[in-house]
Amino acid sequence: MLQLMVVKGPSALGSKFKLEIGRSLTLGRGEECQIRLSGAGISKKHCRLTPLPGNRVELEDLGSSNGSFVNGLLVKKHVLKPGDTITLNPFILQLALAAPEASPASSRGHTNGAFTVPVDATPVVAPELSAGEKVVEFLNNSVFPWADSLSARFDVRLLTVIGFLMWSVLVVLFTASPVSDRANERVTAQAVETARLFARQVARINQKAIIEQRYSDIVADIDSRPGQTRGLLRSLVLDSVKAQILAPSELIGQNLPDRYARAALAKEEESVQFSPEGIAYVSVPIKIGTAEGNKVAATVLVEFDATQGRFTFANLIDQALSSILYSLLAGFLILLFVYRWTEGSILTVAARIDDAMKRSESSLAPPARWPALMQLCEQISNVLGRASASSGNPVNHGAAPWAAAAVGAATQGAAAFDSRLTVTGWNPGMERIIGIRATIALGQDISGASRDVAFESAVRELAAETASIPWSPVHRALDFSGVPHRMTMVGGDGAFLLTIAKADD
């Protein structure tokens, strides 16, 4: 019996699943899948595995976004054999023969570190994820696939700039606006404190004149140049007994100007009043000693504009424009850096591929330790390893001379195999009929050189018959793309020659 084991991945490493004939399994990140794998490159329904007789398994890709790879090659439908590896980024799974069961009790599962992984084909049961792992899983399952779909529709450079613009808007909304509120509160507090100091100075200067009742000496503005104190609108000295104005001189004897003045006379301690427009009315009483104790004889009332220096909407727009400008500059620099870095790495990989092909090397070292680059170079190395096993001729690939010569000379579809049914010759006619290029088919087992299970089965049956009667042709009818064809195989000297032609030719 075959089993599928997770040999690499962000989770469920070492998990095993039994594969039984007659029971297909769907792999993906959707809840309806029998084998659930969570990763950025995994589709909801990624691929399907169907066990076949003879320790074989058919893999069918279900239209996944990132594809299914068998032994490093992208496939749509493929028949697997023990030892083959399946890559569903970021997971790598391997097909192997299941070990004999020790006892009925042990057939239910096996211990894998800190948790037990079921051996039968059920969803992977992983331990409770930590907070950080949950965040990573959310990014892999939700954010990254969404970002990948966006990058597939739009230029990544445009998306980067848009991202920085959105970031600048968020900075303005969630940073500049709250900061402006706090700044305005500080501006108002400072304005009120300035008004208090001014009112206290006026009260101190006029206290002696009030005691001696020298009302002509009372002054309301201690600055000989009115308006020099920023934010000061007016300053009054009020008679608390008669409720009249004592200073400035041009207003002596007039009644109280407004309700803020009347409210100031009613208070015996310093007070602050605010109008709806943000004007602060600060009052400081001038007290004189009497037989009954301290008595308020006059009150200094200062009218002060507390809105001076506030953070306005114009300031907010200025901050927004500055933030956008800086974000564009930062976005451009980061984009330039990432673009040159990625472009340089890709160009380096391309140059190393050329060098490896010229020197017939079978491995490629990644230029940077990026997971994607390392996986790409690993897959390229796999392809180079197969290509280096050939003689450089896409048709003749180490077959017996007679089979290689026949494949090269055939005008119809022809292929050569060794005794293990490894493809050693593959001409353009086979490429048209089977849909597999020679560069991919050469060096592959027949299961790796076909997406059609019926074709693979027919080749194996023909080879079995031919092996029993060497040098005698064996025929088989098979439809390709709905068109009847005639397959003919002859074998001898450890090689097989297969030809395919339309039935009416």
Write up what this structure looks like.
This protein has 505 residues and is α+β, with helices and mostly antiparallel strands. The protein is rod-shaped. A hairpin with a 3-residue loop joins strand 5 and strand 6. The strands form 5 sheets. A 6-stranded antiparallel sheet has the order 2-1-11-10-7-8, with no helix packed on it. Strands 4-3-5-6-9 form a 5-stranded mixed sheet, with no helix packed on it. The chain is built from 9 helices and 23 strands.
Q: What tags apply to this protein structure?
A:
single chain; 9 helices; rod-shaped
Provide a quick synopsis of the model.
By secondary structure, the chain is α+β, with helices and mostly antiparallel strands.
Helical content, roughly?
A: 25-40%
Shape call: rod-shaped
Q: Radius of gyration in whole Å, from Cα?
A: 44 Å
What is the first-to-last residue Cα distance?
43 Å
Unreliable segments of 5+ consecutive residues: 102-127, 389-399
Please state how the strands of the largest beta sheet are arranged side by side. 2-1-11-10-7-8
Mean pLDDT: 79
Structural class: alpha+beta
- Report the β-strand fraction as a percent range: 25-35%
The number of distinct helices, counting runs of at least 4 residues, comes to 9
Specify the biggest β-sheet: 6 strands, antiparallel
List the helices and strands and how they pair.
Blueprint: E1 2-8, E2 16-19, E3 25-28, E4 35-36, E5 47-52, E6 56-61, E7 68-70, E8 73-75, E9 77-80, E10 85-88, E11 91-97, E12 109-112, E13 115-118, H1 131-153, H2 156-211, E14 232-239, E15 244-247, H3 259-265, E16 271-274, E17 279-290, E18 293-305, H4 313-358, H5 371-388, H6 401-409, E19 413-418, E20 423-426, H7 428-434, H8 438-441, H9 453-468, E21 474-480, E22 483-492, E23 495-502
Parallel strand pairs: 3-4
Antiparallel strand pairs: 1-2, 1-11, 3-5, 5-6, 6-9, 7-8, 7-10, 10-11, 12-13, 14-15, 14-18, 16-17, 17-18, 19-20, 19-23, 21-22, 22-23
